[in-house]
Sequence to fold (364 residues):
Amino acid sequence: MNPMLPMEKYFGQLELVYTFFGAMPTGVSVSETGRIFVCFPKWGDEVKFTVAEIVGDELEPYPNLETNLVKPGNNTISFISVQSVVADGRGTLWVLDTAAPNFSEPIIGEAKLVAVDLATNTIRRVYTFSQDVVLPTTYLNDVRFDFRVGRAGYAYITDSSSRGPGAIIVVDLASGTAFRRLSGANSTSPDPYFLPKVEGEILMNRNRDGSTSPFRLASDGIAISPDGKVLFFCPLTSRHLFSISTEALRDQSIPDADLIYRVQYRGEKGASDGMITDAKGIVYAGDYENNSIRRILPDGTMETIAHDPRILWPDTFSIGPDGYLYVIVNQLHRQARFHYGRDLREKPYSLLRMKIGELPAPAF
Fold:
């Protein structure tokens, strides 16, 4: 007779919202009316549309199929490879287009932030970037908003470059002016001493030809406080959490050399991809090394709220008006580029949620 040996404990009440049997998703956002939007960057899968809405049991291209079709020479009004979608709580879905399929250099002038009116499902405005903001190495990753400052608000975007400087890109939504902050700073850069371990194995670039290299990705996860005054951020390959005053980020009279001293270290939270903040100022972050979701209270206390073997790389988070925390789980670490060209991902990918009983942090 073989005795039952003690096993690792799992906890947290997760519900399955949607399963994806096609392309691998990265982003999710739930609007103030409960509409759910997802995105599929072009990382090698067959992507029929890079932005979609979940309508019943179906994925429908959003805002329509035509906008999701690449138009050579006219890509500023079409989506090329979208990494993130964010519903702002006041009727707009913001679409962050890397214009960098397969992690290529961004197509010059076509990396963009697009505002889509949710009432009419039409594009309201397109923000593009100069070449001193979106560099040849830039990968636009995620974005947060505050509409209480400036004439039309500000956006804060992470540059999660794997081969150049990380940064926070600040966008004045009235003028469209954008500029890089903390470019190449330690806080926006990969931790050079960090060795990620997922499913018991070291995560590193393992190429088809047998060569290997460390996996390094810069500032990725981003969250903003309910009053809009503090921005939280973290490099993807790091376990550390940082924050900075958004007022200091917007103030271009403070040079980057001095701005680094305005960054606050918030402690080790685990290695995270996405982050989100609720209306009480609690930050939620994934821990992809431990199949977990954590929350960080305003006093700095950290708690694990879910630990589940199904959380195979928690990517992007969103908080819905229903008091649920939504998370995309996409097995990013099983991609072929980490396993000598062998794709170890198992479909379906999933959208999960858990009840937290809190509302999203307001942006206005």
